[in-house]
Write a structure and sequence with these properties.
6 helices; Aminopeptidase; about 35% helix; alpha+beta; globular; about 180 residues; about 35% strand; eight-stranded mixed sheet
């Protein structure tokens, strides 16, 4: 079912991750992982090459995951956009995105990648619901999701830690009919 799709904007690409990307994925983004990226995504700051490459290779083979890479005009992998935890019976899935370098932010790349992935979820996978969660200390990401049509559905209050402070986990989703309205 996985097509080899590519989307392009201003020299940036979104394409499916391939096995031969595993080493570059690790070396260009996890050596080291940007501390702010780790904070905003809720992951640990240090990973071994084996951890990253084995997860990467496993991820591209899973039937309930579509793993896209975001490629800069210079050919470097700068992020990922993922549809995962797909429930084919309910036609719903989770969405996540990460831009690994702060220099890649504020240029509309995250908004574009979110919209491309959202459209793929509804056009190609025929999902009914696409959901995500975002931390309250990441208002820029929440703004991107709202712009892409996601709606707040709930808040898990004080559900995570941001350093030594509690923060909220905001639940968001977009439904098939809402997406159709956006697309006109």
């Amino acid at each position: 079912m996985k097509k080899n799709i590519i989307s392009e904007k201003d020299g940036f690409l979104i394409r499916f991750a391939k096995a031969e990307d595993a080493t570059d994925y690790y070396e260009q983004n996890y050596c080291p992982l940007d501390k702010e990226v780790a904070r905003l995504t809720g992951c640990k700051e240090e990973f071994t090459k084996e951890e990253v490459t084995s997860f990467f290779l496993k991820s591209i083979e899973e039937d309930d995951r579509y793993f896209f890479l975001i490629i800069a005009p210079d050919g470097k992998i700068i992020g990922e956009s993922v549809i995962n935890e797909i429930d084919w019976d309910l036609r719903c899935a989770n969405f996540r995105i990460g831009l690994y370098h702060m220099t890649g932010r504020g240029k509309g790349i995250g908004t574009w990648a979110t919209e491309v992935t959202r459209d793929f979820a509804f056009e190609e996978l025929h999902l009914h619901r696409l959901e995500l969660d975002v931390y309250s200390f990441n208002p820029k990401a929440e703004k991107v999701y709202l712009k892409a049509g996601f709606k707040r559905e709930g808040i898990l209050r004080d559900a995570i830690m941001d350093g030594d402070k509690y923060a909220d986990d905001i639940l968001m989703a977009i439904l098939e009919d809402e997406w159709k309205t956006i697309k006109g």
